[in-house]
Amino acid sequence: MSDLTAAARLFGADPEALTGLGAFESDVYRFDGPHGPAVLKVMPQGHRSASQVRGEVDWLLALVEAGVPVARPVPSQAGRWVEELDDGTVLVAFAAAPGSLTRPTDWSAARVTAWGELLGRLQAHGRAWRPAEVRRRPLLEHTYLTRAAELVPDDPGFVAAVAELMPAAEALLGDGPDAGLVHADLHHGNLLLHEERWTAIDFDDCGYGAFAFDLAMPIYYAVRAQRDLPAEQAAERFVPPFLQGFRRHAPDPAGGAEAVARALMVRQAELVVALRAKLPPGGWDDRLRDLERELRENTRLARPVVEEGVLRRWLA
């Protein structure tokens, strides 16, 4: 029996009817199971421990109970939230959330405000909620930046720039004074829109980190997604309505514009190392090569994703 067959059967799915939804750090499949349409996530050994995934599930169940629109976990046939195969593969499943992914052309001001409101609700919950057992870890324990020298040996300038960024990364990715349990990746690829309502999905990166870093992530990807606009204009279109919604539920993070600008730089550098770590030699195409080269050069030359002075228009 293959691992995928065993995984499917644990959650009451027909192995032949699984539909692949893509893979980067985990393999994800859609299936129809005992709880209706669902999504199965198959995580290779070493990505996340079963205990860490249970921590993700614990937060999601608390968010569901609080009425926050997130992907709802579903149990296995044995009634367990998380399963683990003999080879260390970790499995978890979620009810398929309604809606679809969006593009920048879909982002009206009202939708961006609602997106910010959802992040604010997640941060407010993360600030107040105390799990019975702390299973998730500081984001710093999973950052790819610590592997820069190993994975990018061909660019010593980039490696040196990462070393200079590490003090900022350690402050943003650790469990510091203005930190808590955060999603850490609420970009448009991890949101579904249905009838003007967003649902947050993919809490795989959730952990303890600075609220400034959490706020910076949707800004980073929103600016990058609007490639037809200069970064300043892309930020101008996105940040004000986003913060309008965010501030309905959460305070601005400590450090303000300076902390967010640093978090944007940290993510830019981290993506270089993540691409090197996760893509096999045959997985690269011209688009990805150009992207990696651009991000690496930006990091080496300390080019900001969005200028701190621009961010100060909206954040102290």
Explain the overall architecture.
- The structure is a single chain.
- The chain is of the alpha+beta class.
- It folds into two domains: 93 residues, 2-Layer Sandwich (Phosphorylase Kinase, domain 1); 208 residues, Aminoglycoside phosphotransferase (APH), C-terminal lobe (Aminoglycoside 3'-phosphotransferase, Chain: A, domain 2, Alpha-Beta Complex), CATH 3.90.1200.10.
- The strands form three sheets. Strands 1, 2, 3, 4, 5 and 6 form a six-stranded antiparallel β-sheet that branches.
- A hairpin with a 2-residue loop joins strand 8 and strand 9.
- It is globular, with a radius of gyration of 19 Å.
- The N and C termini lie far apart (57 Å).
- The mean pLDDT is 96.
Note the run of SSEs as H and E. Answer: HEEEHEEEHHHEEEEHHHHH
Shape by Cα distribution: globular
Query: What helical percentage do the residues reach?
Result: 40-55%
Q: Overall pLDDT, averaged? A: 96
Strand content: 5-15%
Query: Unreliable runs, pLDDT <50, ≥5 residues?
Result: none
Question: CATH superfamily of the largest domain, please?
Answer: Aminoglycoside phosphotransferase (APH), C-terminal lobe
Structural class designation: alpha+beta
Topology-level CATH name of the largest domain: Aminoglycoside 3'-phosphotransferase, Chain: A, domain 2
Indicate the CATH class of the largest domain: Alpha Beta
Q: Biggest β-sheet: count, sense, barrel?
A: 6 strands, antiparallel
Distance between the termini: 57 Å
Radius of gyration: 19 Å
DSSP helix count?
A: 10
